# Entry
Amino acid sequence: MKTDEKLIGTGVLTAIAASLCCITPVLALVAGTSGIASSFSWLEPLRPYLIGFTIVVLGFAWYQKLKPKQEIDCECEVDEKKPFMQTKTFLGIVTVFSALMLALPMYADIFYPKQTKQVIIVDKSDIHTVEFKINGMTCTGCEEHVNHEVGKLDGIVKTLASYKSESAIVEFDQSKNESNKET
# Structure
């Protein structure tokens, strides 16, 4: 049953590829290398096709697994135990894993730590709010990645990124800006 293994492998790979643009920033955060976060953003336009392909492949694998076997009249006793990778249990695990990978954009934000940054404001007139247009954000994971990275900068009071409006509103203290400091 090598075809079953190929179907299962293909289903997992396409599920991962469909969410790779959201998986990469989370992995980069865990690894501490946020610079590679946008490496797979080029896959985002292909996401609907990869999701569809994953569903078709896993659906076909389940069909193959559940279709009735043709009985052969044979007097021989062959009770061959299937390897784990050819069982319904394994296919079920792969299906659940694939569903979790496909749904990752909906819950990716839980992997980002909530930043509690203490900012001392000396003069309220130094606080400015700017809105930046950001193309390419496609999920809450993208929002959290932008908020996390911008929040690391000096003088940032608050950041609110939104993939729906394709923008980030950044509130910052002008007096804390590196270019304004005298050397």
User: Anything to note?
Assistant: Residues 112-180 form a domain with the Alpha-Beta Plaits fold (CATH 3.30.70.100). The mean pLDDT is 77. The helical segments are 2-18, 20-31, 47-66, 88-102, 104-107, 140-151.
